[in-house]
């Protein structure tokens, strides 16, 4: 098994090089996102690692786990701003490693079981957003004004689900520069018939006074339950707390 630092000369980013061959994990990851724009980076990363498991001819547990680690490292190195991607890779790696302690008397059977568990993990991850959308529905009351920042697929799922269930509400959305993620949020919400007011990022404190509560996603979560997200999220959360813009019983609602 090649070490991550022992790549062949002329190697390309996003390619997993091992004694069992090559696998273009970056290409697979990119195709998944192109074919389904609603798919999040962590889910695409997990599915790409599943494809890597299916595509390699590992003969030992060590080879299998090492190749998965190579694939994870290759994605992290090749994709810019890989915070959410890293979360997906790390979750999958921990999941597979945990199951690797099962008794591997028949490696072929063990490998198939491990691959099956990997696909099951990806399937559960895909379903998580719809579960969040249903659980978050209770927060969206009729005639509420919801403040959002950036673009979060989970937040979008909640709002679109609320719209489908007949809830009447309005949304205040920041532009979220320089990425302009907020403009994407506004475009998709308006296409669904939801009233959206887009504001400059500098108007957060003024606009928060008009909102019922703030709802944002998270690029990643840390072990102390803090989150990593786009610029301005710290200011937004602190001001939402001081203005008592709370959702449900939480001080501030974070959704991955």
UniProtKB/TrEMBL annotation:
GO cellular component: cytosol; eukaryotic translation initiation factor 2B complex
Gene Ontology MF: a single term: guanyl-nucleotide exchange factor activity
Stored SUPFAM superfamilies: NagB/RpiA/CoA transferase-like
Subcellular localization: Cytoplasm, Cytosol
Entry keyword set: Cytoplasm, Initiation factor, Protein biosynthesis
Keyword Cytoplasm found: yes
Domain of life: Eukaryota
Stored PANTHER family: TRANSLATION INITIATION FACTOR EIF-2B SUBUNIT ALPHA
Quaternary organization: Component of the translation initiation factor 2B (eIF2B) complex which is a heterodecamer of two sets of five different subunits: alpha, beta, gamma, delta and epsilon. Subunits alpha, beta and delta comprise a regulatory subcomplex and subunits epsilon and gamma comprise a catalytic subcomplex. Within the complex, the hexameric regulatory complex resides at the center, with the two heterodimeric catalytic subcomplexes bound on opposite sides.
Family of this protein: Belongs to the eIF-2B alpha/beta/delta subunits family.
Protein's name in the database: Translation initiation factor eIF2B subunit alpha
């Amino acid at each position: 098994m090649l070490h991550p630092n022992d790549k062949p000369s002329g190697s390309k980013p996003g390619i997993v090089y091992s004694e069992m061959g090559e696998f273009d994990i970056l290409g697979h990851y990119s195709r998944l996102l192109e074919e389904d724009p609603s798919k999040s980076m962590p889910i695409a990363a997990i599915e790409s690692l599943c494809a890597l498991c299916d595509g390699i001819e590992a003969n030992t547990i060590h080879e299998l786990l090492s190749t998965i680690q190579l694939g994870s490292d290759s994605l992290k190195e090749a994709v810019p701003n890989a915070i959410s991607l890293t979360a997906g890779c790390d979750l999958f790696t921990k999941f597979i490693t945990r199951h690797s302690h099962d008794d591997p008397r028949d490696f072929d059977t063990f490998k198939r079981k491990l691959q099956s568990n990997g696909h099951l993990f990806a399937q559960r991850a895909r379903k998580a957003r719809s579960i969040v959308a249903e659980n978050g529905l209770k927060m969206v009351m009729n005639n509420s004004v919801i403040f959002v920042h950036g673009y979060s697929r989970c937040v979008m799922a909640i709002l679109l689900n609320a719209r489908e269930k007949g809830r009447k509400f309005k949304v205040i959305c920041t532009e979220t520069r320089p990425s302009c993620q907020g403009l994407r949020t506004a475009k998709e919400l308006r296409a669904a018939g939801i009233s959206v007011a887009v504001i400059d990022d500098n108007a957060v404190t003024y606009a928060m006074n008009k909102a019922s509560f703030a709802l944002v996603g998270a690029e990643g979560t840390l072990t102390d339950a803090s989150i990593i997200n786009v610029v301005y999220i710290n200011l937004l959360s602190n001001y939402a707390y001081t203005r008592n813009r709370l959702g449900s019983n939480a001080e501030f609602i974070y959704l991955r």
